[in-house]
Amino acid sequence: MSIACCLPVLECVYCLGCAGWLWKKCLYTAGHESENWGLATAEEFEPVPRHCRLVLAVYEDDLRNPVWEPPGGYGINPDWLILRKDYEKTGGSAPPYMIYLDHDNADIVLIVRGLNLAKESDYAVLLDNKLGQTKFQNGYVHNGLLKAAQWIFDMEFEILRGLVESYPGYRLTFTGHSLGAGVVALLVMCAVQFREKLGNIERKRIRCYAIAPIRCMSLNLAVRYADVINSVVLQDDFLPRTTATLEDVFKSLLCLPCLVCLTCLKDTCTFEEKMLKDPRRLYAPGRLYHIVERKPFRIGRFPPVVRTAVPVDGRFEHIVLSCNATSDHAVIWIERESQRALDLMLEKDQLMKIPQIQRMERQESLAREHSEEYNAALQRAVALNIPEAHSPPSYGTFHDLEEGESSERSSGETSLMSIKKKISESWDKFVDRIFDVDESGRIVFKKQIPQTSQRLIS
C-alpha cells in the first residue's frame, strides 16, 4: 500500500534533501564568505591587536597590578588614563568603559567592555530590542544599544571635546568587544552626527573598531558608515552572523546547537533578495576584517590571513556549523590571532624591504582603493534597491544627509560648478597659449604659431 502511495519515494526525496542541506552547511565554512575579498595590509590592520589589548584592560580592577595580562602586556600607561566607570557609576545604563589618552599612537580612545554574563543590566541592554523598533538617520538600529551609546555620549562629550581641542593632531577612536562593539558602533554614529558637540572635529579624525560585534544596524547604515567603522570577525564567530533574536539565544543556551541548526535552516530557505529588501534587518556594521585561520577537512590552525571588504550582499548572512563558533567570539583569541596575522604581514614587508617613500605611496594608494571600494559598495546598495540607500558624491561625505538636505541637489550643484571651473580653466590656458598682447594693447597671434594653425583657428 505504501508503495502504491509512493511514500517511500517521498521519504527518500526528503532524506536526500536534508542530507544535501547538511552536507552543504558542513562544507560551508567562514572562508567562503571572504574568499573574494582583498587582503588587508599591515598599515590598516596594525591598530586591531592594540585595541584588543585595550579592551582586555577594561576587565582589570587595577591596571597597576594586572591579573589577566596577556603576553607582552596591555601596552597601556596607567598615568594616561583619563576616566574609568564601572557598573556602579554607570547604574546599568551602559557597560563599563574608560577613556584613555594614548600619546604613543596619537589617539584618544574610548573603550567599552563586552557582555558580563553575571550582570542583569547587560542582558537588559542586549535584549531591549524588537524588529524595526528604532529608526536612526533613515535606517534601523538596535534599541538597547542606541540608548547605551546615547547615554555615554551625553555623559562624556564634554571630556572628549576638551581632549580633542587640547590635542588637535590626535584621532578620536571608539573600540569595544561583543556588546561593547555594538555600543561603540552606534556611539560613533552619534559622534559623527553631533560633531559640533566635539569641537567640530573632522569626520576623518573619527574611527571605530568593533571587535566581534553583534548585528546592530540596517544595511544602508552599515554601508554608509564604512569609512569610520571597522568590524573585526574571527573565522566562525556566530554573533555577527546570528539573525535569531538574542532573547531566544539566551533562552536556548542549554540547547544552543539546536537553535543554531534551526537558524541555519531558516536562513538557507530564505531568499537573499527577501533579506536585502527588509529594511529592518540588522547587520554587522562598517568595513569588515575577516581573520581566516582554518580550512575545511584540515586539522589544526593555519597561519591567519586577514581579508577585508565593504560587502553589501553576502555580509555574514549565514551561521557556520562549526565547533569553534562560540570560542572564536572570545576577545583573547581574537587578540592572539590578530597579532599573529600582523606579525606575518610585517615579516613579509621586511622581506620585501619596502623603502619609506614606497610605504607612504602605498598608504596613499590604499586610501584611494578604500575610497573606490566604498563608493562601489554604495552604488551596489543603490543598484540592489536597498531601502534608504544613498550614493554620496565623494568618500566619507554625508553632511547633506546628516543635516537633512537633498544630497542629489548638492551633488548636482557641485558637479556643475566643477565642470564650469574646468571649462573656464581650459579656455584661459588656450587663450594664453595662442594669443598675445602687443604694445598697443591689441590681441594678436603669437609669432611662434605656425601659419597652418592660424588658418585652422581662423
From TrEMBL:
One of its GO terms (molecular function) is hydrolase activity. Coiled coil: none annotated. Keywords: Hydrolase, Signal. Residues 1-19 form the signal peptide. Residues 393-415 are annotated as: Disordered. Residues 109-244 form the Fungal lipase-type domain. One of its GO terms (biological process) is lipid catabolic process. InterPro entries: AB_hydrolase_fold, Fungal_lipase-type, Mono/diacylglycerol_lipase_N. SUPFAM superfamilies: alpha/beta-Hydrolases. It comes from the Eukaryota. Residues 10-75 form the Mono-/di-acylglycerol lipase N-terminal domain. PANTHER family: ALPHA/BETA-HYDROLASES SUPERFAMILY PROTEIN (PTHR46398), ALPHA_BETA-HYDROLASES SUPERFAMILY PROTEIN (PTHR46398:SF5). This is Alpha/beta-Hydrolases superfamily protein. It comes from Tripterygium wilfordii (Thunder God vine).
